[in-house]
Amino acid sequence: MYALIIAGGRGERVAESAPEPVPVKPLLEDATGRRLIDRAVDACRDAELLVVVAGEMDLPEGVVRVREDPPLAGPAAGIAAGVAALPGDDTDDTDVLVIPADLADPAAVVASLTAPGVITAGGRLQPMLFRAPLPALRDACAGDLTDAPVMRILRHLDLPAIDLPEALVADIDTWADAVAHGYGRH
Would you say which domain of life the source belongs to (predicted)? Predict the structure, then answer.
């Protein structure tokens, strides 16, 4: 399995709702100094290759960092940039796991995606949480995905839904979310 962590957004809702200036969302730290991106990387540690789509940030050795072009072109463009960095060809049947960097508990989500599928929670599709075969994902990422919705990619994939409890797929979108999950000052 390959893994893509999408960490390239602006994180505006966190920044706008924080009582003081904060780093970009993937770099938010908990009380021990562990960053959101660190938790996501740790959750994907069993991947054959791990690609983080993000701006400049320190990452562990062996983790590949790429950036969508143009920068901040949206998560679909980020997924396409990550897929372009993966090895293999149309005969490579390796699965690709895709998660965002802002999950409160990325390890639980990754553990739930043991086969191709897309996560739903409370009946709502979670388009940034899926696992798909590499050839199909390459095909789905063809063309210009600048500012395109991730649904444009998912529509080309025939993935079964994997329903999880909403609490399990919680993400950090606001300062209140960050504090509730142990990030930021309490």
Answer: Bacteria
